[in-house]
């Protein structure tokens, strides 16, 4: 029992088949799929405005369009791939066509799509606990409970649903990003590896006349994200790539420890960052969040229709089949990157760590 409240005395706010915690790409993908299958879905988010603030470099591979519609209004520009730099020298150019999104517009679109499919969306509602009786939520300081047969935790790395499943805290990278003006438009993203970015890297994703310029560090290996970003900004200014004015600042945490060991238990499933479904090196998480959301949503439909909660046990294997290899290799390579940090010659280490190089794919 929680010291602040007794669950059985809380008012019941709603009852339904599925409650989805978090209206990011993972939650909206889950809610859209489940609601389209005809079951009742409530999606809640602690934010007032879905998609804001943007905490993302906003890149997705073109293949995302096979998973979910990407309306033109969500796309800022197309990029052809990325140029990799080690020690500030260009060493590779890799074709990986993708979009740089307007991530706020995209997240809003995904949430609206879920609502059009029949899901209810409740904003300014924070899940504070998940218990057998349902999800305890706080709205404007008031506690209530939402009862549901199935609970989906898609509320990011600090998931209350994961806590309820006894999952350990995730290992996180810390990222800082600025949006700046480009001196010249670019068709290729830029990725920089340097000892200045311990356990991580720096990026530039062009967005028409602007660019998202950021760094992500594994702080267990040292460094300071703000200092590293400042150095990177100065470098790009000196090279004449960007101008001085900063339009926006953001940052956030990125799971880098690989998938949680448990992503489903009883009537609970974890999706997206909550499940650790983020590539441990690139930090790419939108694509797996959307794919896992579709899997979780459709298993929820089957489970409710057949009255069989055990159907949810298929969730981990289905995720593994769709993107397990992508995350597993990233997890292994991240482990090697960390263990050998400062010990192996830097460019040899990066070549094993980053998918621009054949060494990344060697077993
Ligand atoms: C700086 C940075 C750059 C990145 N760049 C990229 C990139 O270019 N490409 C890419 O693919 N990935 C990128 N990522 C990772 C990507 O943003 C995430 O993997 C992705 O957002 C995961 O989606 P999600 O739905 O699981 O979580 P989120 O998008 O974090 O959504 C979670 C939602 O849950 C809500 N929430 C949280 N806690 C609660 C609660 N207790 N109750 C109710 N609601 C709650 C939040 O308000 C939020 O709306 C980046 C991450 C960072 C930090």
Automatic annotation (TrEMBL):
The keyword Lipid biosynthesis applies. The lineage of its organism: Bacteria, Bacillati, Bacillota, Clostridia, Eubacteriales. GO terms for molecular function: oxidoreductase activity, acting on the CH-CH group of donors, NAD or NADP as acceptor. Residues 187-248 form the Digeranylgeranylglycerophospholipid reductase catalytic domain. It holds the Pfam family GGR_cat. This is Geranylgeranyl reductase family protein. Keywords: Flavoprotein, Lipid biosynthesis, Lipid metabolism, Oxidoreductase, Phospholipid biosynthesis, Phospholipid metabolism. NCBIfam families: GG-red-SF. The keyword Oxidoreductase applies. One of its GO terms (biological process) is phospholipid biosynthetic process.
């Amino acid at each position: 029992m929680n010291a602040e409240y007794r669950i059985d005395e809380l008012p019941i706010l709603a009852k339904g088949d599925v409650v989805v915690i978090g209206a990011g790409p993972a939650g909206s993908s889950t809610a859209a799929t489940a609601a389209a299958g005809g079951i009742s879905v409530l999606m809640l988010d602690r934010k007032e405005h879905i998609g804001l603030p943007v905490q993302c470099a906003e890149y997705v591979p073109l293949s995302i369009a096979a998973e979910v519609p990407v309306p033109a209004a969500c796309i800022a520009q197309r990029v052809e791939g990325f140029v990799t730099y080690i020690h500030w020298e260009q060493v590779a150019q890799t074709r990986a066509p993708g979009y740089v999104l307007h991530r706020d517009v995209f997240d809003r679109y995904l949430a609206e799509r879920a609502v059009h499919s029949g899901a209810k969306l409740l904003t300014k509602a924070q899940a504070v606990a998940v218990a057998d009786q349902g999800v305890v939520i706080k709205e404007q300081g008031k506690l209530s409970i939402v009862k549901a047969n199935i609970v989906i935790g898609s509320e990011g790395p600090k998931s209350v649903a994961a806590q309820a499943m006894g999952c350990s805290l995730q290992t996180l990278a810390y990222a800082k990003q600025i949006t700046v003006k480009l001196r010249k438009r670019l068709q290729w993203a830029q990725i920089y590896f340097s000892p200045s970015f311990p356990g991580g890297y720096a990026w530039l994703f062009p967005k028409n006349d602007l660019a998202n310029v950021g760094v992500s560090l594994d702080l267990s290996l040292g460094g300071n994200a703000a200092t590293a970003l400042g150095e990177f900004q100065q470098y790009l200014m000196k090279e004449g790539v960007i101008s001085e004015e900063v339009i926006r600042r953001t940052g956030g945490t990125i799971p880098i420890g690989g998938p949680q060991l448990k992503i489903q238990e009883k009537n609970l499933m974890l999706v997206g960052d909550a499940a650790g479904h983020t590539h441990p090196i690139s930090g790419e998480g939108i694509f797996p969040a959307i794919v896992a959301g579709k899997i979780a949503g459709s298993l929820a439909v089957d489970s409710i229709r057949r009255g069989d909660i055990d159907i949810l046990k298929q969730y981990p294997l289905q995720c593994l089949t769709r993107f397990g290899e992508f995350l597993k290799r990233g997890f292994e390579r991240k482990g090697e990157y960390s263990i050998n940090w400062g010990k192996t010659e830097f460019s040899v280490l990066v070549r094993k760590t980053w998918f621009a190089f054949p060494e990344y794919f060697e077993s």
